[in-house]
């Protein structure tokens, strides 16, 4: 169960953020409506929301997930791999100091984006990507093992971040897309497989009694409902334009 989340309002500079997609320029008004709906959905899931104000200096900073890895007992401040995003950790460190007694850090030359880290019960999966390098992944693995978790490093082939293509729903159920579907590392899970055309919906989040998924993926909705979950659908178009998904918009703990 999660009792807290951290979110951050997108600033007007969001439209100048990093992206590899060709889906067009985000509409800021629409973006704010979608962000508000996201925050409301989290409240529906029963969590306390720490709401950070927008910071125009960091266009991508609404994607707070990349700045930290959180558990119940400790926080890890990440070291984001994109130069324009690295300074986002300064504010997040201050916020986390108010919430946690035990804080670890990923240190250069190690880089790590929180979007490359997935927790499934006592096991963590750490992707190596354009943003997370081997040293960053090994630093996090060492921290997690010291804290009695199991950690596996997963070199990514195609996905942007690890969680672009995978989500854990608890109860041994794993949502998997693309390169992860046949990966031996995930063979022991009960798989919910997302086909190529619905790949964006593999980035969904379990928040207490609900699974939040992007709107527009009826097949994914059906599969997750069949697995026994209540689903909340949210419009995500303006976040998708900047390569962001549902998990990226919050830190949950
Ligand atoms: C970036 O390129 O960093 C942002 N435009 C998107 C970050 C998405 N974050 C995530 O998948 N955890």
TrEMBL record:
Active site: 161 (proton donor), 248 (nucleophile)
A Pfam match: ADI
Family: Belongs to the DDAH family.
Organism in which the protein naturally occurs: Viridibacillus arvi
A GO term for molecular function: dimethylargininase activity
GO BP annotation list: arginine metabolic process; citrulline metabolic process; positive regulation of nitric oxide biosynthetic process
Record keyword Hydrolase present: yes
Keywords assigned by UniProt, alphabetized: Hydrolase
SUPFAM superfamilies: Pentein
Protein name: N(G),N(G)-dimethylarginine dimethylaminohydrolase
InterPro entries per record: DDAH-like
Domain of life: Bacteria
